[in-house]
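user: Please supply your own:

assistant:
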Amino acid sequence: MRVAIGSDHGGFDLKEKIKHYLLEKKITVIDYGTNSGESVDYPEYGEKVGHAVVSGDFDFGIVLCGTGIGISIAANKVKGVRAALIYDIETARLAKEHNNANVIAIGGRTTSYEKAISMIDTFMQTTFEQRHLRRLEKIKNIEGKE
């Protein structure tokens, strides 16, 4: 499994812990930054991870900022990204099961390490239910209108 990960300063500490956890599980992780807690702009990192994921080189992406909201909005501007802000196990499961999210967004300042890991594990263990494919096709059609 290959995972692209990125964050701004608000998600940096949690990103580093998540990255370490995934590497311990023998998951390939490519870090698109940031590389410190120094203030940076989240759109850059949402875009980098978004492009990495839609390239097909990764199974999914993880983006983090203070709340996860801003960076999820930024990632969703990349055509083909379906970034979902997850905040509990249920939203992690549904992001994959119903929406086939290819990027998950997490709040670095609003989510504990333990909760983040349980959400990520849930997301990775969940499969997309094909009955929702029609809705994903409609999302693609919206992207094609722009």
